[in-house]
Request: fold
Amino acid sequence: MFKGDSFTPTLKMKNLRHVLFTFLFAAGFLPMALASQPTFADLSVLLAKGYFKNHVPADATMEQCAAFLNSKGVCFSLFDLMDSKAAVKQEDFARVVGQSTLLFLGEADVINGCIKKPLGIETWVDYCLLNDVSLPLLWERFLQRMEKGSLPEVQRFFGNDVEGEEK
Reply:
């Protein structure tokens, strides 16, 4: 289902910020149909196909993207994914970015299937700030990208027509 049998942390923190910035920036040029609030479904697809593009097929569905991320400890609630009106908040975004950062650094502590915050860190926003993750810039890029509308994978999941596709 996914490329490669195992995931090994190979990126350094500097490369990690570059990769995250690049995927959010590049994702902004994909054609989209409907303007919407950023959803957890959109975030899971952007993260999986951008940040983890070497491990997730380009044609993966939203369900496959979320399943891959959840299998690695970057947790997405089924309730949030299923709710097309559940908007991602900056704290949610920081959690996903922080969990991904820990995973890439090989420092992830997975408990009950989710990567937990390191000891002594009160919030994921704090973790990002303390570890030089450019959270405000990444958040802004994510919001800019989502102004163009939901991703085709998410539109298909919710049964919406996707611009440029035949029925």
In short: The CA atoms of residues 18 and 134 lie 10 Å apart. The first strand starts at residue 110 and ends at 111.
